[in-house]
Design a protein that fits this description.
Radius of gyration: 18 Å
Order of helices and strands: EEEEHEHEHEHHHEHEHHH
Distance between the termini: 37 Å
Strand content: 15-25%
Number of strands: 9
Mean pLDDT: 90
Amino acid sequence: MRQGEAGGAGPDMTEISSQKRTSGYTEIDGHRTWFADPDGVGESVLMLHGGLSDSEGMLDALEPAIGDRFRVLAFDRRGHGRTADTDGAFHYDDMASETIAVIEKLIGGPTHLVGWSDGGIVSLLVALRRPDLVRSLVLIGTNYHFNGMVPMTPGDGGVPEMLRARYAERSPDGADHFAVVLKKSFAMFAAEPTLTTEDLRKISAPALVIVGDDDLMTLAHTASLYESLPAGQLAVVPGSSHAVVFEKPEFVGQLIRGFLNSPEDPAEMFPVRRRSAVRKNT
């Protein structure tokens, strides 16, 4: 299914980027939402950006590694990037509902989800609520519980100026609204998500967990995420932070490409954690 074939008005195609990326606006649950879709061939991959950020950064970093093999889509969630905010608070469950609506309208079937930070949390929630829409998961710098993240506040220097600048360049709400988005985001970070390892064990989709070795997520929390996912794989990227996608885009892109090419077929010469699964398949 191509965009505009399901639910609501069709997309307003407004621009073509230098990477020949078709982008524009479409109605998602009655809200004007920015999206990008090359309308290419191959299985679809939906990029889900992090909190306080936008889709274009992820696309610029990762699309070169997989765009020749996959149809890479993205959208800006409410209050992020080129999509206007509403008066409501931010909640991950609402973001998951928004994402499900995007998948149903723009893709119309199962897709690979590549989520960074908040986008990874949303990916987990979508996989739990609608496993029929998820081929595989790539979870980058992702926590499943709010206590897995190193504490930070808006005023401690933890919000890079780059995020403010990108918001000012893109947001239809104007640069001054960033303070509102920041407040709503940090309220959510302090109380959500609240998934458990038992919840994670219900996710059957193949999953690649990627984290910087100096990330906002503790390595212990990341290890428990990986260990709880029945079909999980893990990559800890040395010399990188929570911004691993942008610090080492070529390396991360190749990790993702290799995984997406065969998400259900990891190398298994001497498996330990996956030993029982290997025995079942032999």
